[in-house]
Amino acid sequence: MSMTDATRPPEPRAKPAPKARSLTPIVPRATVAGRALVAVVAIMTFLAALTVGTVMGIRATAQTWRSDVAREVTIQIRAGDAASVEAQVKTATDIATQTPGVTAAHVLTSEDTARLLEPWLGTGLDLSDLPVPRIIVLRLDASSPPDLTRLRRVLTDRIPTATLDDHRTWSRRLGAMAEGVIIVGLGVLALVTAATVLSVVFATRAAVATNRTVVEVLHFVGARDGFIAAQFQRHFLKIGAEGGMIGGSLAALLFLGFSLMPRIGAGGDPESPGVLSWLEPGLLGYGGMVLAVMVAAGVTALTSRITVYRTLRTIQ
User: Fold this and answer.
1) 208 vs 26: CA distance, rounded Å
2) How many beta carbons lie within 10 A of that of residue 189, not counting itself?
3) Alpha-carbon torsion (239, 204, 32, 225), positive or negative
4) At what angle do helices 32-70 and 225-259 cross, to 10 degrees?
5) Measured on CA atoms in the order 146, 148, 154, 158, is the torsion positive or negative?
6) For residues 277, 283, 289 and 291, what is the CA-based torsion angle, rounded to 10 degrees?
7) Secondary structure of 151-183 in HEC code, one letter for each residue
8) Rg (CA), the chain
9) Alpha-carbon distance 42 to 296, whole Å?
10) What is the pLDDT of residue 17?
11) In the beta sheet, which residues pair with residue 138?
């Protein structure tokens, strides 16, 4: 090795490349106002989804009940001499089964009748001394229903003590009740929606106000209004979607819990419904809950964009 090589200073080492810094979002993510807005959107979306699910569940249940009522009619024969009543029951059953449109006729036994009267008279009663009528339940063909007027006239001519009940009054009352509940539910939904919009508007304005300095700095350095508004809109869209999904998911889980709820008060009877297990929103109900989540996210994003534009107008 020569002297020149020995005295030559060592070559400088290459400096390591600087580490890439994570980009800080223009709008701060974790803020008190942001978390409060998530909570507000979640609560209001939960109420809106709960209302939608309840209305659709009641509507579907009422339609099912009315359909079941429309498929059945009953023949009642007043109590009297046992032999005479049995003969009248057989005659009424023969007339019913020979009527076009009647698919089946089922004569209720004394035990069946006692079970029907248990909610009003209690259990353990001897009904032999009471003038309890005999009941025949007729199943109707929904595609080709029978002529109930003619059937009622034939029964009255052959059996003066027989009456035919087609449950029309009960069906009309049930329909009116369901329609009333739906109207009330839609009114509640409108109020909840209005409250959701107002809550989101004020909460978003408060959140934007806390970031007014960011808006002013971006404005003064030459950022376009559309760029600034898009940054806030994207930020608040995520907040609205998060809150909406929390509220909508909780409402959906609540209805699923209703369907799986133990049959409280059913006495172990598998045919008896639970307290709220009958409240099934169906596909339309769950679709309405998804729509409520989308509306909450959209309203939050749109409100933030409008609020930012109004804030920029006040900056000179």
Assistant:
1) 12
2) 20
3) positive
4) 40
5) positive
6) -170
7) HHHHHHHHCCCEEEECCHHHHHHHHHHHHHHHH
8) 36
9) 9
10) 47
11) 73, 105
- Return all residues near 118 (Cβ < 8 A) that are at least 6 apart: none
Neighbours of 248 (CB within 10 A): 27
Q: Chain centroid to CA 154: how far?
A: 46
User: For tokens 């701060």, what's the residue?
Assistant: 28
Residue identified by tokens 């359909």 is 67
What is the identity of the amino acid at 199?
S
- Phi/psi class of residue 167: alpha, beta or left (left: φ > 0; alpha: ψ in -120 to 50)? left
Start-to-end CA span in the chain (Å):
73
The 8 Å CB, 24+ separation contacts for 171-179 are 171/66, 171/69, 171/70, 174/62, 174/65, 174/66, 174/69, 175/62, 175/66, 177/62, 178/58, 178/59, 178/62, 178/63, 178/66
- Closest residue by Cα to residue 163 from 126, 138, 129: 138
| Contact (Cβ atoms closer than 8 angstroms) between residue 69 and residue 167 | yes
Phi then psi for 74, rounded to 5 degrees? Answer: -125, 145
Q: What φ, ψ does residue 139 adopt, rounded to 5°? A: -95, 130
Single pTM value for the model:
0.68
Inter-CA distances, 197 with 229, 298, 311, Å:
19, 10, 19
The 10s digit of each residue's pLDDT in 7-60 is 555 555 545 544 444 455 666 666 666 677 888 889 888 988 888 888 888 888
Q: For tokens 């429309």, what's the residue?
A: 70
Could you write out the DSSP letters of every residue in 201-258?
Answer: HHHHHHHHHHTHHHHHHHHHTT--HHHHHHHHHHHHHHHHHHHHHHHHHHHHHHHHHH
Mean pLDDT to the nearest integer, 150-159: 87
Average pLDDT over residues 218-223: 80
Enumerate the H helices of the chain as residue ranges: 3-7, 32-70, 82-97, 110-121, 148-158, 168-210, 212-220, 225-259, 282-313
